[in-house]
Amino acid sequence: MNTNLLLQNLRNVPDFPKPGIQFKDVSTLFKQPECLQEISDELFRLYKDKGITKVVGIESRGFVMGAIIAARLGAGFVMCRKPGKLPAVTRQATYLKEYGTDTIEIHEDAIGSDDVVLLHDDLLATGGSMQAAYELVKQFNPKGIYANFIIELCMEGLDGRHALSPELEMTTLLTLHE
After folding, report:
1. CA–CA gap between residue 58 and residue 94 (Å, rounded)
2. Which residues are catalytic?
3. Roughly what angle, to the nearest 10 degrees, separates helices 33-47 and 62-73?
4. How far is CA 19 from CA 13, 15, 69, 128, in A?
5. Taking the model in full, what pTM does it have?
6. Residues 6+ apart with CB under 8 A from 138
7. CB of 125 within 8 A of CB of 154?
8. Bridging pattern class, strands 11-14 and 144-154
9. Which is it for strands 169-177 and 144-154: parallel, antiparallel or unpaired?
């Protein structure tokens, strides 16, 4: 994987969404065809032999690569969304994040016990949204669950990897130390 290409195209937005937060904006990776292809190729390489049948993208930036990797793997795509965005019966979980609390939902009929699930999100910071998504997906009793992030932040006050269940096999494409 061309890590330098991705790092050169990643935008840092200071003080967003509140003062003191250094927001890592992956939209600049998505708008560059070379970066989009690089991420897609690496995710496919990592998960092509895992038997993935469903990819769960976490709202909202997790939808972009989640849907792309689902298509490449021949898997279904499931949206994990904020409350009120999914039209049918849902299951939900509330979690803490670095600047407040939030809730996510998945459709009640989204995942079956024969599925092998890949959870995907753009960024691992505190781990709250991924742990909540993991707990939701576990309720469906799938055969397996994996997790992936484009970016993992490793800095003071952010210990997302250790907030996740130790039984969750996880990969990240970029690890940032600041």
Report:
1. 13
2. 61, 98
3. 60
4. 11, 4, 34, 20
5. 0.94
6. 145
7. no
8. unpaired
9. parallel
CA-CA distance, 55 to 48, in Å (whole number)?
12
Helix (H, G, I), strand (E, B) or coil at 118: strand
Distance CA 117, CA 108 (A): 15
User: Per-residue confidence of the chain (178 residues) as pLDDT tens digits?
Assistant: 999 999 999 999 999 988 988 899 999 999 999 999 999 999 999 999 999 999 999 999 999 999 999 999 999 999 999 999 999 999 999 987 666 788 999 999 999 999 999 999 999 988 888 999 999 999 999 999 999 999 999 877 677 888 898 999 999 999 998 6
Tokens of 55: 């990819």
| 106 vs 102: CA distance, rounded Å | 14
Q: Rounded to an integer, what distance in angstroms lies between the CA atom of residue 172 and that of residue 120? A: 10
Q: Which amino acid is at 66?
A: G
The partner residues of 108 in beta bridges, in order of sequence, read none
